[in-house]
């Protein structure tokens, strides 16, 4: 909103003067939201008779954990079934000590006390772009250093990634793609990073007030006492499970970031439900091809299913339909015309294989795509479904129509 008031409201006919950022108040508002949400979960525990024990647990037997209580003391719990959902932690960057003030992970990046003049982000994946986008829009000069040739991490469609990069660059973010960080030094006032082209080249030094390390996350299982019961992790630290979320000790199941699959809260949520259903009913199901990804930058990027590169690699024949927000009535009246919706459908059957969006409200709009994929829809199914005028969702319908050459407004 701050960025919008500074840059957009005037042309919409709202004159605002004396705009100032009150970061302390902004953080207080954020903390109120976070508190409300976490307390809400505690309330739901109570309502559903789930006992919440605050402490850290380690296996002391195959059916037993010892809990070091936060308030002191120890408690032993026994369970017929045990679920592990310990999540993940930021992968550290060798040679840079995380202090969550000058060298931060996402944890420190959402709690900075002032807007850094210069911020360098190591890793142009989801976290790097989300946090980079936030601080850039609050006034920071943000440079993202990314090892690969494109931003957004491996799941993002290359065309959407390119479009997103252009939009973020227009907002002032800078990108150094195909670049690796050699080493960092945070002993002085700021942080110095030595970087060079990934394929070898001249090294240069980047100065920053704050460096965000966002090169991925890794499963968090330290201190769980896995060795006491003989549970093993793979070479990426993920707990090994079967399709029913069972470890080799079948009464111990694992869901979420500490095992396979994308590290997303809503993926873990589906797994939690399925894992309980396996215990209670003997069956459960998660459709991993219909898990949406949303990058909460401004504008948002969202996708579900497969991207062009993945389909090419699998040798699948597909067709593409896309529709720009610049041709959508609502986006035009809202003065938010950047971005596009893109459908990828099977060349022969027209079944939707992937949907990729960058633009206003992408994170909400993708829900329709997830439903379409879950129900095995064709792009023509979506194209022949009425969408209200004037809404952004019409861009979604028209991208579907574009896969068979019938988009009306473009
Ligand atoms: P990521 O895997 O999305 O991106 C990491 C990026 O860092 C990649 O593009 C990689 O090429 C790059 N990289 C790795 N090493 C590098 C190096 N030495 N120098 C330069 N670049 C390097 O990881 P992330 O952004 O840290 O996020 C971690 C996980 O958390 C992801 O699975 C992400 O999906 C999840 N997450 C999701 C959301 C969301 O869905 N909105 C929000 C937060 C986190």
From TrEMBL:
<dbReference type="GO" id="GO:0006103">
    <property type="term" value="P:2-oxoglutarate metabolic process"/>
</dbReference>
<dbReference type="Pfam" id="PF02852">
    <property type="entry name" value="Pyr_redox_dim"/>
</dbReference>
<dbReference type="InterPro" id="IPR050151">
    <property type="entry name" value="Class-I_Pyr_Nuc-Dis_Oxidored"/>
</dbReference>
<keyword id="KW-0560">Oxidoreductase</keyword>
<dbReference type="InterPro" id="IPR036188">
    <property type="entry name" value="FAD/NAD-bd_sf"/>
</dbReference>
<protein>
    <recommendedName>
        <fullName>Dihydrolipoyl dehydrogenase</fullName>
        <ecNumber>1.8.1.4</ecNumber>
    </recommendedName>
</protein>
<keyword id="KW-0285">Flavoprotein</keyword>
<dbReference type="InterPro" id="IPR004099">
    <property type="entry name" value="Pyr_nucl-diS_OxRdtase_dimer"/>
</dbReference>
<dbReference type="InterPro" id="IPR023753">
    <property type="entry name" value="FAD/NAD-binding_dom"/>
</dbReference>
<feature type="domain" description="Pyridine nucleotide-disulphide oxidoreductase dimerisation">
    <location>
        <begin position="291"/>
        <end position="400"/>
    </location>
</feature>
<dbReference type="GO" id="GO:0050660">
    <property type="term" value="F:flavin adenine dinucleotide binding"/>
</dbReference>
<dbReference type="GO" id="GO:0004148">
    <property type="term" value="F:dihydrolipoyl dehydrogenase (NADH) activity"/>
</dbReference>
<feature type="domain" description="FAD/NAD(P)-binding">
    <location>
        <begin position="24"/>
        <end position="272"/>
    </location>
</feature>
<dbReference type="InterPro" id="IPR016156">
    <property type="entry name" value="FAD/NAD-linked_Rdtase_dimer_sf"/>
</dbReference>
<keyword id="KW-1015">Disulfide bond</keyword>
<dbReference type="GO" id="GO:0045252">
    <property type="term" value="C:oxoglutarate dehydrogenase complex"/>
</dbReference>
<dbReference type="GO" id="GO:0045254">
    <property type="term" value="C:pyruvate dehydrogenase complex"/>
</dbReference>
<dbReference type="GO" id="GO:0005759">
    <property type="term" value="C:mitochondrial matrix"/>
</dbReference>
<keyword id="KW-0520">NAD</keyword>
<dbReference type="GO" id="GO:0045333">
    <property type="term" value="P:cellular respiration"/>
</dbReference>
<dbReference type="Pfam" id="PF07992">
    <property type="entry name" value="Pyr_redox_2"/>
</dbReference>
<dbReference type="InterPro" id="IPR006258">
    <property type="entry name" value="Lipoamide_DH"/>
</dbReference>
<comment type="similarity">
    <text>Belongs to the class-I pyridine nucleotide-disulfide oxidoreductase family.</text>
</comment>
<keyword id="KW-0676">Redox-active center</keyword>
<keyword id="KW-0274">FAD</keyword>
